[in-house]
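The aim of this short unit is practical: by the end, you should be able to scan a pair of folded records and say something sensible about each. We start with the first protein, listed as its amino acid sequence and then its structure tokens.
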Amino acid sequence: MDRARSSWYVGTGFAFAPLLIILDPWRPLVVAAWIAIGLFGLWLGILGICMATGLAIILRAGEQVPESYWRSVIDFPPTEDRRTE
């Protein structure tokens, strides 16, 4: 969930400044917008801490993160076995 929401959060940041300009005459809406973006940022930070903690637990146990996980993080093209027999 952290991977999906990180890109969403950054993209929303670009729309946030014009939104504040539009909402500027209505002070309570500006405050609500700041609170919303702050809460989403806090949630994203908590998810990042949880993800880092999980990775640390795996590495401390001496295990490896499966290849399928890394392929889900970075959109690699499918691999083909190129060995000739």
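Turning to the second protein, read its sequence before its tokens, just as you did above.
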Amino acid sequence: MAGADFWDERYEGAAFAYGEAPNAFLASLADRFTAGGRALVPGDGEGRNGVFLAQCGLRVETLDLSAQGVAKARRLAAARGVTLQALQADVLALDWPVATYDVIALLYLHLPVDGRHALHARALAALKVGGLIVLEAFTPRQIDRQRQGVRGGPRDAALLYEPRDLRADFGEAEIELCEEVETDLREGTLHVGESAVVRLIARRE
């Protein structure tokens, strides 16, 4: 798992590594988000997804390991005229609140197995009853896509997610969607091409 120095280097400069537009799956769910609700986006990088949720009228907190990413997230929010609470933090060391958020977006937040289990349990507990987890991540099939020139995702299969593992992680929630799909990613210069991803929507009961 890459550390803060890796991500700081990736987010240096004026360009946005993954673009300024939100993740397409998250954006497709805009009508599910209620203005005035609270949202959390761990691992939000340069802030594109947190800013989108703020534009939907939510009160948004974003977290990232990279100081460079957090600074750019704040600048992007200011440029878009929205308020964003962006903090530099390690999501695995965070003291997560309980029953606090209406939406938690976990987008390409790839962790080792133990870290994944822990984070997903904390995220589910941090939702209010009826709150949503929205997740998109690469599956191990992405490694074959990388060999074909597609850009995006870890090259270590242990950091990639299978639908069955997510169903197990969120087994105490109502899983509205959990499926592997092919999607043509166009997110900046680092998520580009026909990619193998898993998408999940889970509701805290």
